Amino acid sequence: MTSTATSLVAGSVAAVTATATAARGRAAVRVFTLLPIQSKTRTKKAFYSTQPAEAADPRYDCSINAPLSTLPAHLDLPPPRKPGESVFSYYFKIGKGYLSFYKTGLKNAAWVNPRLAGPVMSRWRDDRGYAGIVQNKWITRSDLQLLKRNQHDFRRIPLFAVLFTICGEFTPFVVALFSNIVPITCRIPSQIQSDRRWRENQIKASFEAFLPSTSINRPVEGLDKLTWKEKVHCSTVVGRHSGLWPSRILPLPFGFVLHKRLNRYEVYIATDDLLIAKGGGVMKLSPPELEIACVDRGIKVLDKSEQQLRADLQRWLTDSKKGVTIWERWLALPTS
């Protein structure tokens, strides 16, 4: 990305931030709050993971990718059971693999990530959230994603820890019913795929049976110009409200809360766009980070190659530079 492109994206972030600040005050543009655990010393950020050494590709060891400790750890399961192998021994190995996976995930969520996030959060609070980021430009995408995921996971640790204590190695059979309470670091691959498929099915259903045809592909200048159904649809695209709520039948309660969430998310996406450009562009994103960036923007990821995802994300960033609002993109009928 050129410096001109970065400046254009930075300008859009500043504009969004200024609008949100004027309308709702300084607190409206601060997504993250002070975490319960902070480090009092500023240490060099490290990348933690239980993944095999070969999984940490040096090509992606840069400031655009979040620490590996914010991602699920490596799930080490035995190969398919061989003829004559003890059934008890085989399933014992599977249970042991899941037990190790969840223990590592909880350690990363409860100890490693809060320690890494402490110094970053201190600067975040001192610079007054997104407004300070845009003005001082000190943060990297790695820092932003660390803060975002750490806050997400830290809130879920108590309830998930109770569930894990009760279920132990049988936790994978239970988390499918309570996916939203599971920290990101403790989500198994099949759960991640299931959640993404659920989201994409919800988006498809929203286009087909909820969003009025007059709203599809219509130009929208900003959040305040959206109708109620359009706001619910955009929220569905990026998961800003529970998919279990029957929004097609009953209106979502506390509409102002949804409006505020969408406003915050708009600022977050604009900031993340800026930091991807600042960090070297789409090609510097590791495959897991690439998928997360696409999911965050409501881009379909299932059944797509890495090359297709990079092209889709690059198209998103190009549209951002052109001034196309995120609302127009989320109201546009997907072509793939």
Automatic annotation (TrEMBL):
The keyword Mitochondrion applies. PROSITE patterns: LETM1_RBD. One of its GO terms (molecular function) is ribosome binding. It is a single-pass membrane protein. GO terms for cellular component: mitochondrial inner membrane. It is found in: Mitochondrion inner membrane. GO terms for biological process: intracellular monoatomic cation homeostasis. Keywords: Membrane, Mitochondrion, Mitochondrion inner membrane, Transmembrane, Transmembrane helix. Residues 153-336 form the Letm1 RBD domain. It comes from the Eukaryota. Pfam families: LETM1_RBD. PANTHER family: LETM1 RBD DOMAIN-CONTAINING PROTEIN, LEUCINE ZIPPER-EF-HAND CONTAINING TRANSMEMBRANE PROTEIN. This is Letm1 RBD domain-containing protein.
